[in-house]
Amino acid sequence: MIIGVPKEIKNHEYRVGLTPAAAKEFVANGHSVLIENNAGAAIGFYNEDYVAAGATIIDTPEEIFATAEMIVKVKEPQPNECKMLREGQTLYTYLHLAPDPVQTELLVKSGATCIAYETVTDNHGGLPLLAPMSEVAGRMSIQAGAHHLEKAQGGSGTLLGGVPGVAPAKVVVVGGGVVGTNAAKMAVGMGADVTILDRSLPRLRQLDDIFRGSVKTVYSTVDAIDYYTAKADLVVGAVLIPGAAAPKLITKEHIKNMKPGSVLVDVAIDQGGCFETSKATTHQDPTYVIDDVVHYCVANMPGGVARTSTMALNNATLPFGLALANKGPKKAMLEDQHLLNGLNVHKGKVTYKAVVDALGESLNLEYMDAKAALEI
Ligand SMILES: NC(=O)C1=CN([C@@H]2O[C@H](COP(=O)(O)OP(=O)(O)OC[C@H]3O[C@@H](n4cnc5c(N)ncnc54)[C@H](O)[C@@H]3O)[C@@H](O)[C@H]2O)C=CC1
Ligand SMILES: CC(=O)C(=O)O
Ligand SMILES: [Mg+2]
């Protein structure tokens, strides 16, 4: 199979779909790998590293999209990339379609087979291709939050860990999954006073065991959100309903009741965000202020530590990517329900129910079961 890796074009996005090591695995399995000129150069993966791995350097994204049978990316395709996709071609990347009608419509129009990293599943009820980036974003959320609590960044001037004689900052993490756990680890490490809210009692039990008393766990209700957000210095939004638009758990009223100079980091922004006041921001201009509350809503946080993130992402995407290339997409998905769960769009049909639930009416989409769609 011919695998194509275009350079990422989102704002300050320096990750790349394949590392040289991953490219070498595809080549070792008998595939051709095309890498766009300098696709990984910003993070120390140079053209010569890819050439040494057996890949070919290609000058333009147009040539890559025209030639490759499978496009491997990191972020969702931008409109000009969507327009280069075609039927019979596979796209393997993050998509986050539920909050993105423009992209959904363009992918449906393209006819391409579009597999979303974030909806591939595993045997333990997890999302193995989302998890590495959730680990990164969760850890970064506390760095970002601590930074924006500084006075010069618009924050209240509060040090996360406090000092002897001064109480630490209160960090509230809404959603105790992968992002939430990694955020809590960093916040605890910095000495903050950490509370995790989740609506899954089994998950709260696990967190209680992991943190052994160093965080408080609270069952997530409207009342709990009212109480904890009003007291917080930093709130991290980390909820997820897989593939669906994030629930708006923190409302405009909550924001009004928060302390001036407190900070919100909405990691769930890639699924539309879990604060009512959230709108996606970029690494270049990451924050804005509403009612004296600093909002950080960067939709590609791991792009900020692109070298670590690219390696972590490739560790997870490589086995499924090789299966797609070695068996062909249809056979690979039919033989692996977890990979099939990643299929969101195929030959103009939307095959992921939560996307149709979010956008079906406005875009006039019909849901088709993934297995049935693969037969058309
Ligand atoms: N902005 C960025 O750069 C990145 C964003 N993300 C996003 O972060 C979000 C979280 O991802 P993960 O931690 O991997 O998901 P996860 O599935 O591991 O955890 C989500 C948690 O939210 C909880 N939850 C669901 N509804 C809730 C509610 N109403 N109240 C309280 N808790 C609730 C679930 O029980 C679960 O424990 C996702 O939207 C993901 O796409 C992930 C990586 C990077
Ligand atoms: C998961 C995601 O949106 C990211 O890594 O950018
Ligand atoms: Mg206020």
UniProtKB/TrEMBL annotation:
Could you cite one Gene Ontology molecular function of this protein? alanine dehydrogenase activity
Stretches assigned to the Alanine dehydrogenase/pyridine nucleotide transhydrogenase N-terminal domain: 4-137
Under the cellular component aspect of Gene Ontology, which terms does the record hold? plasma membrane
Q: Which InterPro entries match?
A: Ala_DH (IPR008141), Ala_DH/PNT_CS2 (IPR008143), AlaDH/PNT_N (IPR007886), AlaDH/PNT_NAD(H)-bd (IPR007698), NAD(P)-bd_dom_sf (IPR036291)
What SMART domains is this protein classified in?
AlaDh_PNT_C (SM01002), AlaDh_PNT_N (SM01003)
One Gene Ontology term of the biological-process aspect is: L-alanine catabolic process
Q: Which residues form the active site?
A: 96 (proton donor/acceptor), 270 (proton donor/acceptor)
Location of the Alanine dehydrogenase/pyridine nucleotide transhydrogenase NAD(H)-binding domain = 149-297
Pfam families (alphabetical): AlaDh_PNT_C, AlaDh_PNT_N
**Which CDD domains would you find in this protein's record?**
L-AlaDH (cd05305)
Keyword NAD applies = yes
Q: What is the E.C. number?
A: 1.4.1.1
Chain residues that bind NAD(+): 134, 198, 203, 220, 239-240, 267-270, 298-301
Q: Which domain of life is it from?
A: Bacteria
**Binding sites annotated in the UniProt record for substrate:** 15, 75
Query: What keywords are annotated for this sequence in UniProt?
Result: NAD, Nucleotide-binding, Oxidoreductase
Q: What class of enzyme is it?
A: oxidoreductase
Q: Which PANTHER family match?
A: ALANINE DEHYDROGENASE
Name the protein family: Belongs to the AlaDH/PNT family.
The protein's name: Alanine dehydrogenase
Starting at the broadest rank, the lineage of the source organism is: Bacteria, Pseudomonadati, Pseudomonadota, Gammaproteobacteria, Alteromonadales
